[in-house]
Amino acid sequence: MQNAQQNTLRDAMRILNLTRDAITERLGVSRRALDSWLLPDHSNEHRSMPTIVERFLAEILSQAPKNLATKNIDSTSAHWAPHLLSVEQFSRESVEELFRIADIMQPVARRQKTCRVLEGAVLANLFFEASTRTRISFGAAFCRLGGSVCDTTGFTFSSMAKGESIYDTSRVVSGYADVIVVRHPEQGAVAEFAQASNIPIINGGDGPGEHPTQALLDLYTMEREFSRLNKLIDGSHIALVGDLKHGRAAHSLAKLLSLYRGLKITLLAPAGLEMPASIIDAASRNGNIVQCTDNLATGLADADVIYATRVQKERMQGEVMEGYGENFQINLRAVNSFCKPNVIVMHPLPRDSRSGANDLSTDLNQDPRLAIFRQTDNGVPIRMAIFAKLLGVDQQVAHSLRDISWVHPQKLGPNDASFDEL
Amino acid sequence: MQNAQQNTLRDAMRILNLTRDAITERLGVSRRALDSWLLPDHSNEHRSMPTIVERFLAEILSQAPKNLATKNIDSTSAHWAPHLLSVEQFSRESVEELFRIADIMQPVARRQKTCRVLEGAVLANLFFEASTRTRISFGAAFCRLGGSVCDTTGFTFSSMAKGESIYDTSRVVSGYADVIVVRHPEQGAVAEFAQASNIPIINGGDGPGEHPTQALLDLYTMEREFSRLNKLIDGSHIALVGDLKHGRAAHSLAKLLSLYRGLKITLLAPAGLEMPASIIDAASRNGNIVQCTDNLATGLADADVIYATRVQKERMQGEVMEGYGENFQINLRAVNSFCKPNVIVMHPLPRDSRSGANDLSTDLNQDPRLAIFRQTDNGVPIRMAIFAKLLGVDQQVAHSLRDISWVHPQKLGPNDASFDEL
Amino acid sequence: MQNAQQNTLRDAMRILNLTRDAITERLGVSRRALDSWLLPDHSNEHRSMPTIVERFLAEILSQAPKNLATKNIDSTSAHWAPHLLSVEQFSRESVEELFRIADIMQPVARRQKTCRVLEGAVLANLFFEASTRTRISFGAAFCRLGGSVCDTTGFTFSSMAKGESIYDTSRVVSGYADVIVVRHPEQGAVAEFAQASNIPIINGGDGPGEHPTQALLDLYTMEREFSRLNKLIDGSHIALVGDLKHGRAAHSLAKLLSLYRGLKITLLAPAGLEMPASIIDAASRNGNIVQCTDNLATGLADADVIYATRVQKERMQGEVMEGYGENFQINLRAVNSFCKPNVIVMHPLPRDSRSGANDLSTDLNQDPRLAIFRQTDNGVPIRMAIFAKLLGVDQQVAHSLRDISWVHPQKLGPNDASFDEL
Fold this sequence. Notes:
The first copy, chain A, is an alpha/beta fold. The first copy, chain A, has 17 helices and eleven strands. Chains A, B, C: Catalyzes the condensation of carbamoyl phosphate and aspartate to form carbamoyl aspartate and inorganic phosphate, the committed step in the de novo pyrimidine nucleotide biosynthesis pathway.
C-alpha cells in the first residue's frame, strides 16, 4: 500500500503532465526534497511533504482540470461526437480529457464504488463477429455505470441474413437503444452504421480496419504505468513487436502515438510482416523518430515499453511467415537480456499460448513488468469514460459514487503485482 | 417543434377518438376556430385557444380515461390475461386500453424519462428461432421498465435437444422468471408453453402462426400517424401489399382491423400469393369492405396507408412467384403516381434491400411519408405496455417517471421527419 | 394456506434440526399436544399453541442462529471461499449455513420481495458448453440480488479458439466481473480457472466432473420437503435410480449425503450403469448403509425419496444399456405399487420425455409427490445464497428486502401442489 503523500504527488505529475524535474521547478523545491517525499514511508530517506507544498499543489490542481475541461469542451467535442469510429478523431487534448474521465471511473472499475448515472439507459452490443472478451468488457463497463445491455453474439444477425441493409439495421436498433457498439468483419461497416444513426455508435473493431477503444486503453495503460515510474509518454521509447502488418491494434496505437512529442518508436517485425508505410508516416508526423528492425537485441535496448502482438493468422492470405521463430519471442530471457530494468511489457491479447506459436511467453506471468492484465483491466474504465463522454454524463459521475456493499479480493489475480491492489 | 396547444388538441382527439368535426361539435366551437388553433404558431392564420376551451378539454379528458379504465378492467382483463398468444384475444376496448398505456410509455421509450416499476423482475426471452430485432425490442422494453433480462439466442435450447418436453421447459423457466417471451418455429408451440405456466407467456412469433405484438404495433402506428393527420382508423382505407399468403404480420393486422368500423381494405398481391380466404372473412366481419386486386395503380388510389410486406422466401414451399416483378414494387414513383399526398407507407421489416428483391424501395428513405422507422420505434412503447398490463403495473408507471440524466439526439436518424423529434 | 402457528413450529424444527419427539423433549410438552398444534386449523383435533410456548420457541430460535452463524464463520469460511468448485468443500455446518441463507432468499425467489444488495456488481456467466437452464437459473438468481449479468452462450469462446490459455481467459474476465460461473465440457477446467483468479469462481458443471450447485439444491429440496412432512434427512431412506454410472448429479448428491447420519441409501441401477465404487465409499463414510440392487420393487419399498436420473447418452462411450427398459421406469404405477404414501419423487432435470426413453414418466405430473418443479424452483434461492455468501452480503439481505410492485400468480404452474403457493 502506498502512502497518501506519494499518491498525491504522482497523480499531480500525471494530471499536469510534468516530470519530476518539471514539477520541481514549478513548485520551487529541490529535486532531492521531491525524491524524498516520493519514497515509501518505511524508507530511511523518506520525508514528509510540508503543508505549504500540499496547499500549493492543491491550488495548482484546482486550476488545472477546470482549464482543461473548458478548453476540451470547446475544442474537441466536435471531433469525436456523436460517434467513436477511429483514433483519427482524437487530438492530444481530447485523448487527455478522456483519460481524466477514465481516472474518475477507476474506483468503480476497481470495485470500490458503484455508479448509477446511466440507470434506465440501454446499450445494444452488436457483435457480427465473435469477440467475447471485447463484448463483455463493453457490457461490464455499461453495467457499472448503471445501464442495461442487450446483446447479440455470433456471426449472424437474422434480419441481415434476410437481405436487410446496414442502414435499416442501424436505424431500427437506434429506436431501441441509447448507444450501439458494433463489431463487424468488414472494414467500413461500422462507419456505415454511423451514417444511419444519430445516437452514438462505437467501433468495436471492423475487420482489418480499426479498433479504437483498444488503442485508447493501450495508451492509457502506458500513461498509468509511466506515472507509477515517474515517466511521461512524451520523450519515451516504445517498441512494437510482432506481426505489424496485420495487427490492427498496433496500427491504431501507432497513430495515437503521433499525438505525443519526442518519441522514439521502434518497429520490430519479421520480414513480410512489417508495418505498412502509411502507418509509419502517420506515427512520425509530429517529428517522432521511427526506426524499423528485425533485431530484437538492438531494437529492445533502451525501450520503455515492449508492445508485443499476436500473429493474426485469421487475417493472413497466404503470406509466408519465415523469421517468426523462437528467436522473435518476447520471453523472460529476452527481457532480462535486452531491456532496461523497469521496462513495461504489453500485449493487446489474446495471446496464443500454444507451443510453437512464439507469442508472448507465459514465463513472465509472475513478473511485475508484465502489464498485460493491468492493460486489459484498464479496458473497463476507458470504455466507461467513452460511454460517459458520448452520453454527456461524465460530469455527473464523481458526484454520484456510492460505496459498494460486497467484498472484493485485495488483488484480482494471484500473480498480480504488489502495487496493483484494488 | 410543435406548440403545446396543438399537441393538447391532437392528443385529446386521439384519446377521445374524435375527428375535427366531432370534437368541434363536442366543444361547441366552430370548425374554423378549431382549425386556427391547430395551425403552427408561425402561421398567419394561427389563433390562441381561449382559456375556457382549455379548461373544458381538460375536464372532458379527466373523465374519459377513468371511464375507459374502469370499463376495460371489467370487460377485457379476462380476454388476454395471463398470456398474450393471439390478436384474437383482443376487443376494440382492450386494444384501445393498450394503446393508452403505450402513450404513457412514450416519454420513456423516447428517452425523456426513466421508469423503474419492474425493478427486480426478470424476463426470460426464449428465442428458439433467431430474430435479433424482435428479441432486442422486447429486451429493451423490459429494461426501460427497470427489469432484468435473461435470454437465449439461436436455434437450440440445450435441454430440449436432450428430449425435454415443452411442458417441462416452460414450467422450469416459470420458476426463474416473471414473464416469458417465446419465439418458436412451430405454430402452436407458444400456446403449448402457455398451458404449462401461470406466469405471463407472450407469443413472439410462432412460425406460420401469429406475431401479435407486431400487429399491435402496426395498428398503434396507424393510430398515431392518423392522429397527426387528423384522421381516424374508423373509415380509413388500408392497402396491404405484397406476399399476403405467407405474411404473418399482414394476417394478424387484417384480423385486428376487423375491430374497426367503415374500413376499406385493399389486398394487393401477385397471383399465387393472395391472402387466405379465412383472413379475408375475418377482416370483413364487421362490415368492412375488402377488395382484392393485383393492379397497383387502382389499388393504391385513395389509400390512407400502404402496408408493404416482404416475400417470405423462408416460408415458401415451391410456390411460383410470377408477377412479383418490378411493377409490384412500392417506390417513390408508385407513391407519387398512384397515392394521395398524405399517404403513410408502412412495412413490418426487415425489408430485403438486395437488388431484384423488389421489396419496399430505399428511394423513399428521405420521404416523411415513409413511416417504417416510426413504426419500429413504436415497438418499444407497445411492448412496454404489454409487459406493464400483464404484470399489473400499468397504473404505477405515470407516477414513477423520472427525468433521464443523459443526453439524447433531437432525432434518432438523420433522415427522420421534422415532426418526429424526440 | 397454512396457519402461522404450524409454520412457526415447522420452521423451528427445521432450523434446530429436531424431530417432533426431540422438540417435544426440548420444550417440555407432550407429543400429543405438539401434534394438535401442528394440525390444520379446520381439524377438530387442532389446538392453539399457548403463548408461553411461543415465547419459549422464540427465545430458543433467537439463540440458535447466532450460535450457528458464529460457529460457521469460524469453522467453514475457509472451506469454500473464495471458490465453489466441489461438494467436497462442504461440511455439515457449511451446508446448513447455506440452507439458512437460502431460506432468507425464498421471499425474493418466490416474488414476494425484491433485493438490491448486489446493485452494481457484475456476473460473468461463461458457458463453454450449452446449458440454457443452468445459465438462466444462475443469471436470474444474480439479477434478483440486484446485479447485472454478462454471459456467453454456445460452444466457443472466441479468444480461446485463437489459442488463449484458461489462465489468461480467467484473469482477463476477473478484471471485468465480480464473480464468474463457468461451465466447461472438460473435468478440471473450472478448477484451472479458479487457479488464475482471486474473485469467486463457481463450478457450473465441468463435464464428467462435478455440478455442485445441482447437488446442493437437491439436498435443500429434500430438507424442505421433509420439513413439510415433519421428517429429517438424518435417518431417512434415499433411493437413487437410473444411470448412476454417468449421473454427475447423483454422484455429487451421494457425497453430500455422507454429511448426514443414519441414512439408508439405495442405489438402483441397471447392469452396466452402476454407481462407481469410489462414490459408494464416500456415501457410506459416516456409517450410512448403502445397498445396491436392480429390483425396483424391493429397492423403493420404504424410501422417503426417489431420486430418478436420466440416461446420460451424451456421456456414454459404447456401453451397453441392457436392462434399462420399461420395467425400470419411475411412473405412477411403480410409485403407487412400491412406495410409501408420502414418498417424494425428484429428478435433476432435464428428463427425456420421448417415448422409449423410459425416463421419469409424465403420468406423475399432477401428483403432489412429484417434487421436480419445486426442486428446480429451489435452484434460484440456493444460487442466490451461494452468490451472497461468496460476495459477503448474506447478512445484508434480510434488512434490504422491499415489497414487489408487480402482480404474480398464486402458483407458478397449473399442476403445482396446493401447498406450493407463492
